[in-house]
TrEMBL record:
Electron transfer flavoprotein alpha/beta-subunit N-terminal domain location: 3-158
Domain of life: Archaea
A GO term, aspect molecular function: flavin adenine dinucleotide binding
GO biological process: fatty acid beta-oxidation using acyl-CoA dehydrogenase
Protein family: Belongs to the ETF alpha-subunit/FixB family.
Species whose genome carries this gene: Metallosphaera cuprina (strain Ar-4)
Transport is among the record's keywords: yes
The protein's name in its UniProt record: Electron transfer flavoprotein, alpha subunit
Length: 287
């Protein structure tokens, strides 16, 4: 069985290679820098808009199974390839084994509350979660590949550079719709500044209303964070948000509704107005 491992990210590439090696000896890879985790490595330059042109390269390799990483661009590539291969698909897989006529994969469902065990027919394309497995190394044959740029740019937006990155932040002040307006987000930013923390937000305030840049979204379809302190201001605590903050050490929620769902998922609940809370805390901590 030929397995193709693909990711733009070194950690995902290592994780995918380790899973692939459990299933087959015939493992090839596509990755933008040299690696000895696969027997044959296709080495493209991944700049610009590479996802769709990489689909053509992978399709020609004709794998039975593609194990791709979990970055947004890895996923765009993977599911476009799945369409072209007319293969079965599964995302965010963390366990995979061979079955008589296909694969058995495990992936989270219901925002990580449950685990689904799914049987897939080959050919198949899966995206994975990172793991800590260490793959063996080979005397890898390397082939450089040149991509043709086949993507069409509809709209270009510059990524906003975060001052403190959410994945490394020890303290996160996170805002939800309960902050009331874009102007009020400054109170959370002032509090984050005295706490030397990062500012994040729920999906409505980032992806939908634009109170914060989209890359600050926390949750199932945004960043997964694990700070020492997560301060949830005016966030109701829907499962899709909780999925991204589950690994936080201490969660403090400020909500005017004592029965908001976040009350079930936080360590401390302050029942009150989030803006007043920010003003008072910023004043006290500034002293
Ligand atoms: C496929 C899918 C993926 C999703 N992914 C994500 C994701 O990654 N991240 C995410 O966040 N959501 C995600 N969502 C959306 C999610 O379901 C919720 O809609 C969202 O999290 C709610 O955001 P919120 O808590 O800011 O707003 P709301 O649910 O409107 O909650 C606002 C809260 O603020 C409180 N409040 C109001 N005024 C004040 C005040 N003055 N002071 C204090 N509290 C106040 C209210 O009591 C309420 O609890 C996803 C949904 C789907 C379907």
């Amino acid at each position: 069985m030929k397995i193709l491992v693909v990711s733009e990210d070194p950690e995902y590439f290592r994780s995918a290679s380790a899973l692939a090696q459990k299933l087959s000896d015939d493992v090839e890879g596509i990755h933008p820098s040299e690696s000895s985790y696969v027997k044959k490595l296709y080495l493209p330059k991944l700049d610009g808009f590479w996802e769709l042109s990489l689909v053509d390269v992978a399709f020609k390799i004709n794998p039975n199974l593609v194990i791709a990483g979990g970055t947004k661009r890895d996923k765009t590539f993977a599911f476009s390839l799945a369409g072209k291969m007319k293969s079965s698909v599964a995302s965010d897989v963390f366990d995979v084994r061979l079955d008589n006529d296909g694969l058995i994969v495990k992936r989270p469902v219901y925002s990580g509350v449950g685990i689904a065990t799914i049987r897939l027919k080959l050919p198949s394309v899966i995206t994975i979660q990172k793991n800590t497995l260490e793959p063996k190394t080979f005397n890898t044959l390397i082939e450089k590949v040149t991509l043709t740029n086949s993507n069409v740019i509809l709209k270009e937006r510059k990524a906003v550079q975060q001052t403190v990155s959410l994945d490394k932040a020890k303290i996160i002040v996170s805002v939800g719709r309960g902050m009331g307006s874009k102007e009020n987000v400054k109170y959370a930013e002032e509090l984050a500044s005295v706490l030397k923390g990062a500012v994040g937000g729920s999906r409505p305030v980032t992806a939908e209303m634009g109170w914060l840049p989209e890359d600050r979204q926390i949750g199932l379809s945004g960043n997964k964070v694990k700070p020492q302190l997560y301060l949830a201001l005016g966030i109701s605590g829907q499962p899709q948000h909780i999925a991204g903050i589950r690994d936080s050490k201490i969660i403090v929620a400020v909500n005017k509704d004592k029965n908001a769902p976040i009350s079930e998922n936080c360590d401390y609940l302050v029942v009150g107005d989030a803006i007043e809370f920010c003003k008072i805390m910023t004043k006290r901590l500034s002293k």
